Amino acid sequence: MWIYLFQGIGYGLAAASQPGPFQTYLISQTLTRGWKRTLPAALAPLVSDGPIILICVLVLSQVPAWLEKILYIAGGLFILYLAYGTYNSWKNFDSHLPAVETGTQQSILKAALMNALSPGPYIFWTLVTGPILLKGWRETPVNGIGFLLGFYVTLIPSLAAIILIFGTAAKLGPKFNRILLGISAIALFCFGLYQLWLGFFYG
């Protein structure tokens, strides 16, 4: 079990540190709403990853190409929607206005939807971690559980650390905060266009 636990820890750290739409979304939310209101969103993978893992391990590797393209297109459109919201926050930025209140449950669910519509988790669980999970589970379920435990015990605190780091950076001043917010909007926009390109033209 220990081998799978340590593998889970390593891959959890890798998943959190890879730049992608979900991490960019967490950063933009931190800059817009503050780290305290965004911190619960770090739990979003616990909500969204269960179905993702099930799909990847059992189904995704065998689905037709057209269904994969639809997934990319849907994710791309949703990310562009988030990019537009971040752009509006940048455009109308006012350091004197308080952050908009949003319930913890709504924050987690929106972040979970963001994660579920991103291709990263599907690719990760299909090509990288899925085979390890299956191998460990077939040996003994304890190995599979150990792998998942190591993965999420590392992933969630790492995502929380990203939120805290950018929450601290935002305190450097409203101008710096607005610059980071603009960069987040551009990054989300590029991620959205890339996913649409994958959906319409790749393959």
Structure, explained:
- There is one protein chain.
- Helices cover about 80% and strands about 0% of the residues.
- It is mostly helical and about 200 residues long.
- The chain has one domain.
- Helix 1 runs antiparallel to helix 7.
- The protein starts with a helix and ends with a helix.
List the helices and strands and how they pair.
Elements: H1 2-17, H2 21-33, H3 35-38, H4 44-58, H5 65-91, H6 104-116, H7 119-139, H8 141-169, H9 174-200
Helix pairs in contact: 1-7, 1-8, 2-5, 2-8, 2-9, 4-6, 4-7, 5-9, 7-8
What brief labels describe this structure?
mainly alpha; 9 helices; 203 residues; globular
Whole-number average pLDDT? 79
The class by helix and strand makeup works out as mainly alpha
What's the N-to-C terminus distance?
39 Å
- Catalogue the unreliable spans: 96-101
Query: How would you sum up the major sheet?
Result: none
Shape: globular
Helix content: over 70%
Q: How many domains make up the 3D coordinates?
A: 1
Per DSSP, the total helix count is 9
Radius of gyration: 18 Å
Per DSSP, what share of the residues sits in E-state strands of 2 or more residues? under 5%
The SSE string, one letter per element, is HHHHHHHHH
- Strand tally: 0
